[in-house]
């Protein structure tokens, strides 16, 4: 049997630059998600405190609204959802930057197409963050069925946005890792 020498340079290795970029983007997403969530919680508590002050339409006098501020248990899952969507947005920013740099060097139509594909995804992330902002108040709805379908319950809008963003993060992380090789 012939011994074929193995060239160590040909063995697959970890792309350290890509991993560093991904970690930095994850940290930026976590920090911005926490900061945004903090402001969303403050805004939601202000809106909840106005529930009891605002005059209700005649048909809504029997609809009880909680006017107590959100508790820690009320904001854990919404905060996690905002963090997840912010990580996704930062990964998109990283991908846009990588492909823009490649486009400047190559002026390839394919890379331009990727940029035009990533920009709407980034805009989608911005609108998802805004949708999650609006859903922070859903914890104040006293009826469980409504709160869970609108908010962050299983199958609710907030939970669905967060789960979709988890899959988006997986795909974007793989694409960013492969794009920086």
What would your notes on this structure say?
The chain is mainly α. It has one domain. It has five helices and no strands. The longest helix is centred in the first third of the chain and has 36 residues. The mean pLDDT is 81.
Number of domains: 1
Order of helices and strands: HHHHH
Nearest-integer average pLDDT: 81
* Count of DSSP H/I helices: 5
Shape: elongated
Total strand segments: 0
Helix/strand-derived category reads mainly alpha
- Main β-sheet, in a few words? none
- What is the terminal separation in angstroms? 35 Å
Give the amount of beta strand, in percent.
under 5%
Low-pLDDT residue spans: none
Topology:
Layout: H1 16-51, H2 72-106, H3 109-135, H4 144-150, H5 157-179
Helix pairs in contact: 1-2, 2-3, 2-5
In brief:
By secondary structure, the protein is mainly α. The chain is 71% helix and 0% strand.
Characteristic key phrases:
mainly alpha; 181 residues; elongated
């Amino acid at each position: 049997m012939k011994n074929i020498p193995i060239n160590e340079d040909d063995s697959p290795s970890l792309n350290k630059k890509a991993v560093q970029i991904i970690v930095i983007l994850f940290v930026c997403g976590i920090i911005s998600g926490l900061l945004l969530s903090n402001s969303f919680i403050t805004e939601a508590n202000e809106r909840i405190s106005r529930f009891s002050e605002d005059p209700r339409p005649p048909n809504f006098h029997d609809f009880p609204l909680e006017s107590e501020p959100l508790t820690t248990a009320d904001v854990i899952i919404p905060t996690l959802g905002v963090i997840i969507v912010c990580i996704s947005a930062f990964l998109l920013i990283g991908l846009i930057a990588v492909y823009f740099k490649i486009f400047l060097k190559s002026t390839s139509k394919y890379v331009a197409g990727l940029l035009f594909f990533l920009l709407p995804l980034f805009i989608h992330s911005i609108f998802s963050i805004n949708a999650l902002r609006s859903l922070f108040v859903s914890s104040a709805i006293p009826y469980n069925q409504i709160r869970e379908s609108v908010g962050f319950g299983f199958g609710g809008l907030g939970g669905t946005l967060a789960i979709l963003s988890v899959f988006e993060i997986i795909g974007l992380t793989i694409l960013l890792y492969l794009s920086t090789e």
